[in-house]
Design brief:
3 domains; 16 helices
């Protein structure tokens, strides 16, 4: 037996395993699991004949090895399939995870799409604004080109031009510098330089003749003419300049920003205040009612004093907007905000007369220079105007709260000071914006006259000149109760001659219609 055992020592583990496998056809793979290795398997060995048979075990193992590997691979595939089939929770969790990730990707794509749409809308608005500005710039260039042509025609037909051309043709043919520019301003400068050269030539000739014929006053006359030409050139440059530092679109935007500031203050102040049905009958209330009626009309003053605002103070907010709009429009109608009243009246009359009798650039330049030098003579005038307007807005607003039955702020000084401290910065911002708008319309715009307008209380509604703030809730017919948003009007003198202009020769356009509230608003706010 020993020699036989020695023959089977080669490949002991593999041959023995295959030996028992070949002798045990009842070997089962039912206990085989994907989690166990081959070394952990337990299988019964039931040989049919326990007596060993002398045979070539190596050859038998080589023949049975492929069959065994195929069985093991088939068992692994079957076990993997059964485990996934018998455990549906694993497949469900995988599907849920996939669905969750797809939803997250979908939400991210939606957010990115909304951001892209908002960006596209913003760029479209910017494109429209730039296109509008470009159109206005082109129109302005066309107007200036026409003015240059008119100045050229005037200069060409003037007798002075004919006289100068006879002296300067030879000099201009030799000097190429005279052929670079055809603008009226450069031509005036060249004429002054040519007069200076002629003066020098004539002066040298006169000095040569002086030794023979004595003194000659002609050089002094030529010097006087040269100085007059220079002064005339500077005067034309000053009073015929129509360059605007602000465009019409920018002025409209400034008025709209001012209206937004007024609306924010009125809404914030009304929301902070509380109102009561009972109103004290005192001398202060009577005086405040009279002053509010003077500013905003008797109808609005009566509505504020008689109606209950404890539930819906919308009427109080509209009255606040109306009183601030009236305050600013009255201040901007003066020649210089904060200046002396009598002097303002006189300067306004002078400018009105000049606007109807002089060319548009002349009257605009006079107003700009006058307004500028008033502020240079009184450097503190701008700060004084801002503080005065701020104080007026507070005083008028507190009068409205008083007659409306407000319990906060109360008529006592402490409550009013708290109200001023709460809204002081906001009201001062409104005053600064109004004063800045006044400076722009008076000093930085030469081509037209811009006016901030508001509709008067008691005026009949006109859809071409104003907008009904509640037009969506009913017909826009009736009488104006107050103005809640300011408008803008542009006036230009079309006549080019120095003769006085009539109303037909003045072009008036409303660039921004004021927004008003009609007396029928009571039916909209409180329908009974």
């Amino acid at each position: 037996m020993l020699p036989i055992a020695n023959l089977n020592l080669k490949d002991l583990y593999q041959s023995t395993f295959e030996f028992f496998t070949s002798l045990s056809p009842s070997f089962s793979f039912s206990a085989f699991s994907a989690e166990n290795t081959v070394s952990d398997l337990s299988f019964p060995l039931t040989p049919t004949d326990p007596t060993p048979r002398p045979r070539n075990l190596s050859a038998s193992a080589d023949e049975e090895s492929p069959s065994l590997r195929d069985r093991l691979d088939a068992a692994e595939r079957t076990d993997s399939h059964n485990s996934s089939f018998c455990n549906p929770s694993v497949g469900a969790s995988v599907a849920a995870s996939t669905l969750y990730s797809m939803r997250r990707e979908n939400d991210a794509i939606k957010n990115e799409l909304s951001k892209t749409q908002a960006e596209v809308a913003r760029w479209e608005e910017r494109y429209k604004t730039l296109e509008k500005t470009l159109k206005e710039t082109r129109d302005l260039l066309k107007v200036r080109d026409k003015e240059i042509q008119v100045l050229k025609e005037r200069e060409r037909h003037s007798p002075e031009h004919h006289f100068r051309s006879t002296h300067f043709d030879r000099r201009r043919s030799c000097d190429p510098a005279h052929q670079r520019s055809d603008s009226s301003q450069s031509r005036q400068i060249r004429l002054s330089a040519d007069w200076s050269e002629i003066h020098d030539d004539t002066l040298s000739q006169a000095n040569g003749n002086h030794r023979r014929n004595g003194s000659d006053p002609y050089p002094d006359n030529m010097s006087t003419v040269s100085e007059e030409e220079r002064a005339q050139s500077r005067s034309l440059e000053t009073f015929l300049n129509k360059i605007d530092l602000w465009s019409g679109a920018q002025v409209i935007q400034a008025v709209q920003d001012l209206n937004s500031e007024i609306l924010q203050f009125a809404a914030s102040a009304t929301e902070l205040c509380t109102f009561s049905k009972q109103r004290p009958n005192s001398a202060k209330v009577t005086q405040a009612s009279s002053e509010v009626a003077t500013r905003l009309g008797a109808a609005l003053s009566r509505l504020l004093a008689t109606r209950d605002h404890s539930q819906d103070p919308m009427l109080v907010q509209l009255a606040l907007q109306g009183c601030i709009s009236y305050c600013i429009s009255r201040a901007l109608s003066s020649f210089c905000i904060g200046y002396q009243s009598k002097a303002n009246i006189t300067l306004t009359q002078i400018y009105t007369h000049m606007f109807h009798s002089e060319p548009q650039p002349t009257s605009s330049r006079w107003r700009a220079l006058t307004h500028k030098h008033i502020h240079e003579l009184h450097p503190e005038l701008n700060e004084y105007a801002i503080n005065e307007m701020t104080e007026t807005i507070f005083r008028w607003s507190l009068d409205i709260f008083l007659i409306s039955g407000s319990t906060n702020p109360q008529p006592n000084p402490a409550s009013r000071e708290n109200f001023r401290a709460c809204f002081g910065a906001q009201v001062k911002r409104i005053s600064k914006a109004a004063c800045r708008l006044a400076q722009v319309t008076r000093e930085e715009i030469m081509s037209a006259n811009f006016e901030v307008i508001a509709a008067d209380s008691g005026q009949l509604f006109d859809g071409q000149e104003m907008i009904d703030a509640f037009e969506d809730y009913g017909s826009s017919d009736g009488v104006v109760l107050c103005t809640t948003e300011l408008g803008l009007r542009c006036s230009t003198r079309k006549a080019t001659s120095d003769a006085p202009a009539s109303e037909e020769s003045i072009d008036r356009r409303i660039l921004l219609r004021p927004k008003v509230v009609l007396e029928s608003v009571v039916e909209v706010i409180d329908p009974r």
